[in-house]
Design brief:
Layout (H helix, E strand, L loop, with lengths): L1 H39 L4 E4 L3 H14 L11 E3 L4 H11 L4 H9 L5 E5 L6 H12 L3 E7 L3 H6 L5 E5 L4 H24 L7
Parallel strand pairs: 1-2, 1-3, 3-4, 4-5
Helix pairs in contact: 1-7, 2-7, 4-5
C-alpha cells in the first residue's frame, strides 16, 4: 500500500510535467526573451517568493549568477528573500506585505525583470512586489499555479505569465523548478548557441 502511494507521487508528477510541457513552452520562450533583453542590456533579475518559492528564487539566483550546465559569463540575479535583517526590519516597520516592494524600489532599475514564484496568488507581499516593479518600469515574469487570479489581474501585456495547470503545492513546486531550469537553459542557448544533450 505504501509503495503504491509512493509510486503514485512519481506518476502524478510525470503526468503534470508532460501536460505542462505542451502548455508552457510558448510563455517560457517569451520569458527567456524578456530575461535575455534584460541581461544583455546590463540589467538583472530580481526573484521573489514565499516559503518554498523563496527557496526556488534562491536556487534561480545562484544558478543564474554562477552557471547552469555550462560555463558562461556571470548574469545578474538577486533573490529578495535572502537578507533576514532587511526582511524583518521592513516587516516590523511597514508590514510583511512590503518586504519585497521596498527592495524593488531600492534596487530595481528600468529594464530589470522581476521573477515572481507563487503557489498561492493571494500573498500580499508578492502582489505589492508586482506593483512596485511596474512603478520602477520593470517587466514581470510570474510563475504560478492555476489559481492565480490576483496576480493575473496585475500583469500587463508586456509581462509574461507561466501558469502551471495545477493547484497542488507539491506538484507546482516540482514544475516550477523545471520551469526555472528551462529558463536558464533557454537563456544559455541564446547566449552561447545550441549544445547537444549529453545525457
Amino acid at each position: 500500500m505504501l509503495e503504491q502511494r509512493i509510486e503514485q507521487q512519481f506518476i502524478d508528477s510525470a503526468d503534470l510535467k508532460y501536460q505542462a510541457a505542451q502548455i508552457l513552452s510558448k510563455p517560457m520562450a517569451a520569458a527567456v526573451q524578456s530575461i535575455l533583453v534584460c541581461v544583455t542590456g546590463g540589467g538583472k533579475v530580481l526573484a521573489c517568493g514565499n516559503g518554498s518559492c523563496a527557496a526556488l528564487a534562491q536556487i534561480f539566483a545562484a544558478t543564474f549568477v554562477s552557471r547552469f550546465e555550462r560555463e558562461r559569463p556571470e548574469l545578474g540575479a538577486i533573490a529578495l528573500s535572502t537578507d533576514g535583517v532587511l526582511l524583518t526590519a521592513a516587516a516590523q516597520d511597514y508590514g510583511f506585505e512590503e518586504v519585497f516592494a521596498k527592495q524593488l524600489r531600492a534596487l530595481g532599475q528600468p529594464g530589470d525583470v522581476l521573477l515572481v514564484l507563487s503557489v498561492n496568488a493571494q500573498q500580499d507581499n508578492v502582489l505589492q512586489a508586482i506593483s512596485a516593479a511596474h512603478e520602477r518600469e520593470l517587466s514581470v515574469v510570474a510563475i504560478t499555479g492555476q489559481s492565480s487570479g490576483k496576480i493575473r489581474q496585475l500583469l500587463r501585456e508586456t509581462d509574461v505569465h507561466i501558469c502551471v495547470p495545477s493547484d497542488k503545492p507539491a506538484r507546482l513546486l516540482e514544475v516550477h523548478l523545471l520551469v526555472l531550469h528551462g529558463l536558464c537553459d533557454g537563456v544559455d542557448s541564446q547566449l552561447l548557441g545550441e549544445q547537444e544533450n549529453n545525457e
